[in-house]
Design a protein that fits this description.
This protein is mostly helical. The chain is built from 4 helices and no strands.
């Protein structure tokens, strides 16, 4: 499974499609969060439930890739990929905060 950095180095049209996917998902979550907050509902519950839904979608995509790939991707590959993404997100958030951009 590629790391975030490896995904960033991909070329178009694949890179463009991944950026569009990222953009669409982030916007959908932001819209949902905005609606939840506007109605005085539990935004933490919404965010945690969103993670569960996104993990479910990611797991289905991973399973489809495993079915189509001769290489044996395992559940451990999925877990390691998720851990890499978490680490990347933490550093990205910190870097943006330190840079005053986020």
């Amino acid at each position: 499974m590629p790391t975030i950095e490896e995904c960033q180095r991909l070329r178009d049209p694949l890179r463009g499609q991944l950026e569009l996917l990222d953009y669409d998902i982030r916007n959908a979550v932001a819209r949902g969060l905005s609606d939840i907050e506007a109605n005085g509902k539990d935004d933490i519950l919404f965010m945690n439930a969103s993670v569960t839904v996104l993990l479910s979608i990611a797991a289905r995509i991973f399973q489809r890739a495993t079915d189509c790939d001769d290489a044996q991707n395992t559940e451990q590959c999925f877990v390691l990929g998720a851990q890499d993404a978490i680490g990347w997100a933490k550093t990205r958030r910190l870097r943006y905060s330190v840079a005053g951009e986020g």
